[in-house]
Each structure stands twice: as structure tokens, then as C-alpha cells.
């Protein structure tokens, strides 16, 4: 019985590790959705904006797992926005920019994704050398509720300028490029205007990238194959070991059950003597007595 219990333990440990393995495999393929992030920022801005004054930038506090992400919001009258622009966060929106559709007031939600940038935005064959920053406009005519629809901006004069907080260039010979991330996952490239400044004609999310050298890419590809293969191989082995262990435990259980059956069978074995049925065991007990008598 002890060995059965032990194999039971082994099986449960193996099953547990198999589950752990599959959950790990799942979490590594987890995808980060920029759209849901925007919606999260919008709802936090909506909650805080009603308590705040028009014309001032306010920081928004996010859930604790977004500590390195910075989000702020400002509400501006449309007339003021047209006449003076908006100079907040990393964005310098000049005069003569129109927000459509027309609303009495607009709210601009700014964000800096910090070290989560590359989790939400990637550029094929390039690496980010600056955090992803963005701004999105919403209708703020109603002082107590932000509109659902994003506003679109049209630049009549100078472009909107983005000053990136820091650009980390590992290779000084490589020219960095500005990128704008489209809503459908598209990427638009443009030249850097000054060392850390990009220009744009509209709202969205932006960063600076550097072309990644191809050999490193190939190595990564190769590594992924190896990791996938080794992972799959161990998964298969684990599966087989669990299968064999379960089979062995089942077989042992069956053998013990069969042994129990045969023991019971012996106890209740019967003999037919004439027409009456006698338990065999009683015969066995009486026999030595008879033998003894015979000898005496
Ligand atoms: C908002 O947060 C940034 C970065 O953490 C900080 O530099 C700035 O002073 C804050 N602004 C306000 C109004 O709290
Ligand atoms: C933070 O936690 C929320 C749930 O509490 C989750 O939806 C979100 O994806 C998490 N964010 C990160 C960056 O892990
Ligand atoms: C915008 O703000 C920056 C600093 O935050 C300042 O250097 C710059 O002169 C301002 N530009 C305008 C047009 O107000
Ligand atoms: C981002 O930085 C914070 C604090 O430095 C750290 O706790 C967090 O794990 C980092 N997140 C990622 C995805 O690197
Ligand atoms: C990335 O680079 C590889 C080869 O280095 C090329 O085959 C692929 O088309 C590139 N992808 C994009 C989106 O440019
Ligand atoms: C403003 O929003 C609040 C909350 O959603 C709503 O109760 C109110 O009717 C809205 N006011 C106007 C003028 O639409
Ligand atoms: C903002 O909050 C109000 C309630 O306070 C709600 O009616 C409205 O739908 C919210 N808007 C967004 C865009 O979440
Ligand atoms: C970007 O810069 C390259 C040279 O560095 C130039 O050939 C190209 O025309 C520029 N593109 C734009 C849109 O200015």
C-alpha cells in the first residue's frame, strides 16, 4: 500500500509540473493590446477630469502595475486651443490646429509608456530607442463626462512637434527614424528633425526606432526554434512519464484488487458433498483431527 501512495505522490507532482509547463507556455505568448490600454487611460481620465480646472495639466494615477507609465490630461476650450495651441507633456501643438468634429471644449490625454513601450508597440526589423509617447483628443464639452469618440486634428500651419525624453542610441553611426503607429497596426516612418524631435500632422502614438542588424535577427529566429523544440521535447517526455506512471499505478491497483478477489474466493470456496454444500475451510480444519485419530 505504501508504494501505491508514493506513486500517487509522484503522479500528482508530475501532473502539477505539466500544468505549470503549459501555463508558462501560454503566458509567454500573451499579447498586449494598445487599444485596450487607450480605453483604460480614457476611463481614468474620465474619472478624474470632472474634478479639475480647464487649462491645467493633471497627472492621472494608474493601477500599481503601471508604475512606469505616465498619463496626464488637460481640458482646453476650442477657441483657446486654436489661438494659442497646447504646450504640454512631450508635445508642442502650435496655433492653427483644428480638432474635429467641432466641440466647445476638448480634452487631450497624454501618455508615456515607459518600459512597457515595447510590450505594446513593435516595428518589424527595428528596435525602439525611445519610449512610446502619445496624445489623443476627446470631446470635453460636458464638464462631467468625457466623450467616447476620438477627435481628429488638422494642422493648418506648422506641424506638431514631439520632444522625446531620451533617445538611447547604442550605435552612433545608425540614423534613428521617427515612427507613428497607426490604429490598424501600421507604421509610418519619417526623418528625425532635430536630435530628439519628431514632427507629426495628427494625434496617435510615436517613438524613435533604429534598424536592427539582420544577423542578430537570424540568431533570434534560430534561438526561438531551439527553445520551441527543447520545450516541446520536454513537454512530450513529461507527458509520456506521466502516462507510464498512471498506467503503472492502475496496474498495481488492479493486481491488488485481483489478489483480494482470490483471497475472498478461497474463504468462500465450497465443496459439494452429495446434495449438501459445505464450506471447504471446515473440511480443512477437520482433516488433521481425523488424521490424528487414524494415527492413534
Ligand atoms: C506629473 O508627473 C511627472 C512625472 O512623474 C512630474 O514630473 C510632474 O511634476 C507631475 N506633475 C504634477 C502636476 O503633479
Ligand atoms: C495590470 O493589471 C490589470 C488587472 O488588474 C490588467 O488588466 C493589466 O493588463 C495589467 N497591466 C500590466 C502592464 O501588466
Ligand atoms: C513649451 O514648453 C517648453 C518647456 O516645457 C518651452 O521650452 C517652450 O518654449 C514652450 N513653447 C511654447 C511655444 O510655449
Ligand atoms: C518597469 O520598471 C519597473 C520599475 O523600474 C519594474 O518594476 C518593472 O518590472 C519594469 N517592467 C518591465 C516590463 O520591464
Ligand atoms: C525583415 O527582414 C527580413 C530579412 O532580414 C525580411 O525578409 C523581411 O521582409 C523584413 N520585414 C519587414 C517587415 O521589412
Ligand atoms: C453630462 O454627463 C453626465 C454624466 O454622464 C450626464 O448625466 C449629463 O446629462 C451630461 N450633460 C449634458 C449636458 O449632456
Ligand atoms: C465617463 O463617465 C460617465 C459617468 O460619470 C459615463 O456616463 C461616461 O460613459 C464615461 N465616458 C467614457 C468615455 O468612459
Ligand atoms: C529623410 O532623409 C533622407 C536622407 O537622410 C532623405 O533622402 C529623405 O528625402 C528624407 N525624407 C523626408 C521625407 O524628408
From TrEMBL:
> Which region is the signal sequence?
1-25
Transmembrane stretches, start-end: 225-249
State whether keyword Transmembrane helix applies: yes
Name of the protein in its database record: Uncharacterized protein
InterPro entries per the record? DUF1191
* Pfam families xrefs: DUF1191
Highest taxon above the source species: Eukaryota
Q: Keywords in UniProt for this one?
A: Membrane, Signal, Transmembrane, Transmembrane helix
Amino acid at each position: 500500500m505504501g508504494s501505491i501512495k508514493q506513486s500517487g505522490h509522484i503522479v500528482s507532482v508530475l501532473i502539477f509540473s505539466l500544468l505549470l509547463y503549459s501555463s508558462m507556455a501560454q503566458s509567454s505568448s500573451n499579447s498586449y493590446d494598445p487599444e485596450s490600454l487607450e480605453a483604460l487611460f480614457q476611463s481614468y481620465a474620465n474619472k478624474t477630469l470632472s474634478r479639475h480646472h480647464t487649462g491645467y495639466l493633471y497627472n492621472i494615477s494608474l493601477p500599481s502595475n503601471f508604475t512606469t507609465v505616465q498619463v496626464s490630461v488637460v481640458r482646453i476650450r476650442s477657441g483657446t486651443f486654436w489661438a494659442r495651441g497646447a504646450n504640454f507633456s512631450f508635445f508642442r501643438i502650435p496655433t492653427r490646429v483644428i480638432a474635429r468634429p467641432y466641440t466647445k471644449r476638448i480634452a487631450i490625454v497624454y501618455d508615456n509608456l515607459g518600459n512597457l513601450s515595447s510590450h505594446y508597440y513593435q516595428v518589424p526589423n527595428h528596435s525602439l530607442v525611445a519610449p512610446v509617447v502619445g496624445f489623443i483628443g476627446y470631446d470635453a464639452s460636458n464638464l462631467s463626462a468625457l466623450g467616447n469618440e476620438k477627435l481628429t486634428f488638422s494642422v493648418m500651419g506648422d506641424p506638431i512637434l514631439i520632444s522625446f525624453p531620451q533617445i538611447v542610441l547604442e550605435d552612433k553611426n545608425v540614423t534613428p527614424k521617427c515612427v507613428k503607429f497607426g490604429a490598424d497596426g501600421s507604421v509610418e516612418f519619417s526623418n528625425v528633425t532635430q536630435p530628439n524631435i519628431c514632427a507629426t500632422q495628427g494625434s496617435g502614438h510615436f517613438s524613435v526606432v533604429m534598424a536592427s542588424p539582420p544577423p542578430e535577427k537570424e540568431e533570434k529566429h534560430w534561438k526561438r526554434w531551439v527553445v520551441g523544440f527543447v520545450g516541446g521535447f520536454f513537454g512530450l517526455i513529461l507527458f509520456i512519464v506521466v502516462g507510464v506512471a498512471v498506467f503503472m499505478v492502475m496496474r498495481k491497483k488492479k493486481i491488488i484488487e485481483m489478489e483480494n478477489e482470490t483471497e475472498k474466493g478461497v474463504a468462500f470456496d465450497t465443496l459439494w458433498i452429495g446434495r449438501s454444500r459445505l464450506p471447504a475451510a471446515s473440511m480443512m480444519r477437520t482433516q488433521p483431527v481425523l488424521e490424528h485419530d487414524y494415527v492413534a
